[in-house]
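Take a record:
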Amino acid sequence: MKETVKTVVYQAFPRLFGNKNATLIKNGNIKENGVGKFSAFSTKVLKEIKGLGITHIWYTGVIRHASVTDYSEYGIPASHSATVKGKAGSPYAIKDYYDVAPDLADNVEKRMDEFEALINRTHKAGLKVIIDFVPNHVSREYHSDLRPPFIEDLGQHDNLSKAFDSNNNFYYLPGLSLVLKYDTQTQIEDFQYSEFPAKVTGNDCFSTTPGKNDWYETVKLNYGIDFMNERRQVFDPIPSTWKKMLEILLFWTEKGVDGFRCDMAEMVPVEFWNWVIPQVKAQRDVCFIAEVYNPAEYRNYIQNGKFDYLYDKVGLYDTLKQIGWGNLPASRITDCWKSVEGIQHNMLNFLENHDEQRIASDFFAGNGFAAIPAMIVCALMNTNPVMIYNGQELGERGMDDEGYSGPDGRTTIFDYWSMTTVREWLSNKLPEEAQKLRSFYKKLLNDIAKEKVVSRGVFHDLVYANLNNEHFNIHRHYAFLRKHENEVLLVVVNFDQQEQTVSVNIPQHAFSLLNIPDNKVANVKDLFTENEFIGTLTDACPYQMILPPMSGKVLKFRYN
């Protein structure tokens, strides 16, 4: 991901993405509701995705995970329903690290071949492939059928009489049985789920009775942290789990995968990442993205954990959401970049992913166009990568009552379902409003974000120069500069629902720091409208513009 162009990630959930079935039943099974396939990502579709300005596709839910769908005829029995959330199951309850989800294949027996073909198609389309790596936990019924014969299975040689042993892959509650009191659905089996001794639940729940809000369908992996003894670290000799995870990462790297989005990376010791990432990168230049939510650990996971990128969730995402709601002033964006100063280029910006509420949902903004000012900030603020979630560019609402996932403003990851806007797009029936929104994303990500001044330029915040500017509302407006060689980008956004006339002060400090000619005539281009004219930037007077509701203006000044 070390390109000289802006890195733009498209998160796609194949189970939903290619499903064109619009006749959906709450809690429906795969036959009733259908399922998307790898083949939905045709050469044509991949070309359309790349045309948005995308450089990487994160295929979510590729690796085989627990599900109640029965593929026994292919040697893949259904998981016990007590250990599955929904009918399709969570893609983060991995059942076999060396297999792909049979749901996603047209021919189940050829499922790995079909995924390898998808990797090849993606590469031929000029895109790179990211998949999930789930290192902290696995399905309660984990068993690898397709692991290479020289590799031992997780837990195969665990000492079940010990709560902790650095050679164990799981943590145990010796002599105790697991009791799953929280049933997510009517049991379809003739017997209750049995686990003895009980394994520790994935969210560090050391109880035989995990509850509704626990990750009860998963078990925690042991990386040499003795939780029962003041979190004592036993890393010498190298724990068994470390070695098995390295083998898994190399397996997928050899398939041609270009990167890994590492689920709940901060629940795994940073020492493991420091050990494993360089070994994987020595085999192939792949990128590692960490899902980390503790800002105090950001630098640790970049500098010591060797991650390329981290989620900017607790900082920029949360702040932009609150600004959109009117709960925070737009000037708080300044605090966001200051908090990650020095590692800004390592932060992955986003407004949607599978965990978060859809912008167009009733819980967020109720309108996909409301994302425009925030998306401009995410995409243009610095050189770091930006990500969108499939359907975001079309205004997907996420307000369906799918089954396990209720109408919560999120697109389900547990149920067999489809996405309305993606169905319409794949069927060439996209409404005009959705087409307009997609055009905005295409212009922003494909044209503007690929400008050298965006992908390479330095950043300069202008809020400090406009704190006392009566024509610049720091609660609803935000402005910054980008500078590269003889080009300057002036970016101003309006979070307000009313049209605003905005005047932006650009201080002498900015001109001298960025080496911008003061009051020199430049060729100016509005990068959204493509209108060209002559203009100047000067500290002698503010730069004035009219901004429509929930919008932004991006002006490129080019000096001869």
Summary: The first helix runs from residue 14 to 17.
